[in-house]
Design a protein that fits this description.
The protein is an alpha/beta fold and 562 residues long. Among the domains are: 158 residues, TIM Barrel; 52 residues, Oligo-1,6-glucosidase, domain 2, CATH 3.90.400; 78 residues, Golgi alpha-mannosidase II (Immunoglobulin-like). The chain is 27% helix and 17% strand. The chain has 16 helices and 22 strands. The two termini are 18 Å apart. Bound molecules: alpha-D-glucopyranose and calcium ion.
Length: 562
């Protein structure tokens, strides 16, 4: 197995751990109730103290915020809400001076309908920008095809003036760019160079596998959501376009990319990320491990299924090993808080530490989302008008149409809404959780901030926060955690997730319990726990009697063997 490792380059992006900031809710530096760059700069020492190596910023660009930054009105400017381009340059310098890399969010499948290109595009059919977007004539009174948008509804919007429809795979205010137009690709490369020249170290590329649409835009298989996806997911020219971006721009800088890829499998991912001269992206975010409690999206809920989770993780770990590099997250701005999903709010601290261990001890570059490191939980907003997220509002309408009652939809939203991840970071127990000095923050603050906050976690040596610090340090100091191979044990257990790692003669065993029940764990063949060193755990005095133990609620243990 170890020979696989020899084939791979050990580059800096593999060793690093990344912290994700969703700027609006991170920290308000100027007292207007909205998070900003000044606030971020004031917390750089805190971020560094987590033992991470890079920060990925969700979009900071100018945006009308129909999708909170993922609808960009100007790719080369910073939103006034967050500061100025000079402020951003200061942020890059301050981050770099602390050894932290900076990753920008590159959203190029679509722009905002307020982007100048789109405003020009809809002026006339012979406007030079018209062909920057995907405009088509309707079929009689109907749209050009039956595709559906992710933020539900038809994927086409009619323009009275032009008597044409434009394509939007997301919200109406997010028109899709026509990547088949070479001028559009030149613009994208120009945007990449602009940020790389400022000094950013890489990009997270938003829904990047959707940018090439099938010629003729044929009808999709008729399903209620994401209809048409088979014609734009991993579309006909995707590899060509990504190679062009890489050869013309990315390969000229010491930078890295991670692409967001809904419905991705390891087999298809390898076409993008296999190391070597044809590699298009360095890593990929997949969604399979975020579907252990749902079907395709959090709104279609199923009971949490550990076997489904393990299957997803194990297939990515084994299928990429020696060929390509994993990127793993368990939270981000699109996902409800993980403790409220895969862990337990009753055993918040225990399950928060277990979930951290479970994924950070896999072979990957781990991503940690703001607030995850202190174990923030879902806010569960009770009323529809308390939500901000376009996906939540549109899903409400869709479920209503499907005949769901208001009460039922609110029950789903409380669990599934992306807004659960977008409440302000809880810094202390003071007014507005220390997020802002304004009277009111831009968004609801989880009332549990009096208990769950950074200041309290700093003071408690057993906090989730201090556990993350220790775990990330442990990872950095032990190449086996980063580069070792992976083998799953206890596959049939629906309560325990156990795996081993091997590297240069060392072995590591990672045991995670996903239940509050006592479960009998016996070490797999070839492991003698009495000879192992317990290096990470979430209980003070874990009892070991035989070559195994009865697990405590959400217990995690990592044993190292020489
Ligand atoms: C990605 C982003 C999400 C956004 C969508 C459309 O999935 O992570 O926040 O709404 O793309 O840009
Ligand atoms: Ca502010």
């Amino acid at each position: 197995m170890e020979s696989g490792v020899m084939l791979m380059n050990n580059t800096w992006y593999k060793d690093m751990a990344v912290y994700q900031i969703w700027p609006r809710s991170f920290c308000d530096g100027n007292g207007d109730g909205i998070g900003d760059i000044k606030g971020i700069i004031s917390k750089l020492d805190y971020i560094k103290s987590l033992n991470v190596d890079a920060i990925w910023f969700s979009p900071l660009y100018k945006s009308p915020n129909k999708d909170y930054g993922y609808d960009i009105a100007d790719y080369k400017s910073i939103s006034e809400d967050y500061g100025t381009l000079d402020d951003f340059k200061t942020l890059v310098a301050e981050a770099h001076s602390r050894g932290l890399k900076v990753i920008m969010d590159l959203v190029i499948n679509h722009t905002s309908d307020q982007h100048n290109w789109f405003i020009e595009s809809k002026k006339s059919k012979d406007n030079p920008y018209h062909d920057y977007y995907i405009w088509r004539k309707g079929k009689g009174k109907r749209p050009p095809n039956n595709w559906k948008a992710t933020f539900p509804g038809p994927a086409w919007e009619y323009n009275e003036h032009l008597k044409e429809y434009y394509l939007h795979l997301f919200a109406i205010e997010q028109p899709d760019l026509n990547m088949d137009n070479p001028k559009v690709r030149e613009e994208i490369k120009d945007i990449m160079r602009f940020w790389l020249d400022i000094g950013v170290d890489g990009f997270r590329e938003d829904v990047i596998t959707f940018i090439s649409k099938k010629e003729g835009l044929p009808n999709g298989f008729p399903i209620p959501a994401a209809c048409g996806m088979e014609h734009y997911k991993n579309g006909p020219h995707i590899h060509e376009y990504l190679s062009e971006f890489k050869n013309d721009v990315l390969s000229k800088y010491d930078c890295f990319t991670v692409g967001e890829a809904p419905m991705m499998t390891p087999e298809i991912a390898l076409k993008y990320i296999t190391e070597g001269k044809n590699q298009e992206l360095n890593m990929m975010f997949n969604f399979q491990h975020m579907e252990a409690d749902c079907f395709m999206m959090t709104w279609i809920r199923i009971p949490f299924n550990l076997k489904k989770l393990k299957k997803a993780f194990s297939s990515w770990q084994t299928e990429l090993y020696g060929k390509a590099w994993n990127a793993i997250y368990i939270e981000n701005h699109d996902q409800p808080r993980v403790i409220s999903r895969y862990g337990s709010e009753e055993y918040r601290v225990e399950s928060g530490k277990m979930l951290a261990t479970m994924y950070i001890c896999q072979s990957c570059t781990p991503f940690i989302y703001q607030g995850q490191e202190i174990g923030m939980t879902n806010i569960r907003l009770p009323e529809l008008d308390m939500y901000e997220d376009v996906f939540t509002k549109n899903n409400y309408k869709m479920f209503k149409k499907l005949g769901f009652s208001h009460e039922k939809i609110m029950e789903i939203a409380k669990y599934a809404s992306r807004d659960n991840a977008r409440t302000p970071v809880q810094w202390n127990a003071e007014k507005n959780a220390g997020f802002t000095t304004a009277d009111k923050a831009w968004f609801h603050i989880n009332p549990n901030y009096t208990e769950i906050n950074v200041e309290a976690a700093e003071k408690d040596e057993d906090s989730i926060l201090n556990y993350y610090r220790a775990l990330l340090k442990f990872r950095k100091e032990n190449p086996i955690v980063i580069y070792g191979d992976y083998k799953e044990h206890c596959k049939n257990s629906s309560e325990l997730y156990v795996y081993e790692r091997n590297y240069e003669g060392k072995r590591m065993l990672v045991i995670n319990s996903f239940t509050d029940k006592k479960v009998d764990f016996t070490a797999p063949e070839g492991f003698d726990l009495s000879k192992g060193k317990l290096v990470m755990t979430n209980y003070k005095y874990p009892a070991t009697s035989y070559n195994g133990f009865k697990t405590k609620p959400y217990e995690t243990r990592v044993y190292m063997f020489d």
